[in-house]
Amino acid sequence: MQERIRRVYVPMTETGFYILFCLQEEMHGYNIGQRVKAMTGGEVSISPGTMYGTLSKMEKDGLIRFIREEEKRKLYRITELGQEILGIELRRIERLYKNSKGEYQNGE
Amino acid sequence: MESKVLFRLWTITDYEIEEQFLTEQHRAGWKFRRYVLPGFYFFDKCTPEEVVYRLDFDQAERGEKTEYLQLYRDYGWEYLFEVNGFSYFRKPVEPAEEDLEIFSDNYSRLEMVQRIFKRRMVPLLIVFLCCVMPQLLLQVSQSIREEYVAAKVLAGIFLVLFVVYVCLFIHCGIGIRRLKKKYEKM
Q: Which parts of B28-97 fold into alpha helices (H)?
């Protein structure tokens, strides 16, 4: 993996994380926004300007791929590179959570 | 229908003031209809309403304006038009809509400031350094050497241009710093 991609995306912004996480399924921007709102009980909302910018950037960096267009809406899906980044991020968040509960990384 | 025209000038770093201005006009019962360069605002009389106006700067990828606007539409934003690279959107506050921003994190707000800087300030600086400055020096030296009125007039014009540009740079420079500071802190 390129060092630049890793530097930019790890650790991820909350917006970036939720978008990438949602795109394990094929979705368009507004879909993602609605899903994130439902998942977080309205605590995280991603506005259209932020959504558009993040999707464009992730597509350029190869984390997600444009699949098809449906009524002028672009549907995306995560790529292998994206999946790899998401995995790194998930392990990091898990570690944070464990540590915050007083647990050590190796289950001690 | 009753309507009115206002004249107003603003520069790239004052887009938040522009949003505020249009929101206040709508609150007072004036709905923004049209803009004509260099600064004529056409309004139609309407029932006073809480409607927020928001500006995005040159974000749509090339050939993707339709998809870009569809995303905003999905979120309930009405697109008005584009002026100088700024896309104008508006959205009524009711019904109990909490999402009245087009950017939800400071990272994307800062990116917009950077886009403005790169695509507006940098070209202006290039024009200034490669055209206004050399022309000013040339015309001034010529008007000193020659007695023609035309040479003096030209030198005068470039002097005025020079002052306008410098004022603009100072204003925008301060504006960009202010915006950056604000979003980096939040």
A: 65-74
In a domain, B15, yes or no: yes
**Residue B160 belongs to what domain range?**
106-185
d(CA A30, CA B3) in angstroms, rounded, equals: 36
The number of domains in chain B is 2
In this complex, do A52 and B74 lie within 8 Å of one another by their Cβ atoms? no
The CATH number for A78's domain is 1.10.10.10
> Cβ–Cβ of B102/A15 closer than 8 Å?
no
Domain endpoint, select from B65, B92, B119: B92
| A47 closest CB neighbour out of B59, B70, B99 | B99
Query: Residue B170 pLDDT > 70, yes or no?
Result: yes
Whether B97 is covered by a domain: the verdict is no
Domain assignment of residue B98, yes or no: no
| A103 inside domain | no
pTM for this prediction: 0.88
Which tens digits make up the pLDDT trace of A27-84? 999 999 999 999 999 999 999 999 999 999 999 999 999 999 999 999 999 999 999 9
- Give the domain range for residue A21: 3-98
From CA A107, how far away is CA A36, in angstroms rounded?
31
Chain A, chain B: beta-carbon pairs less than 8 Å apart: 65
Residue-wise pLDDT for B107-157, tens only, equals 999 999 999 999 988 998 998 999 888 888 888 888 888 777 877 888 888
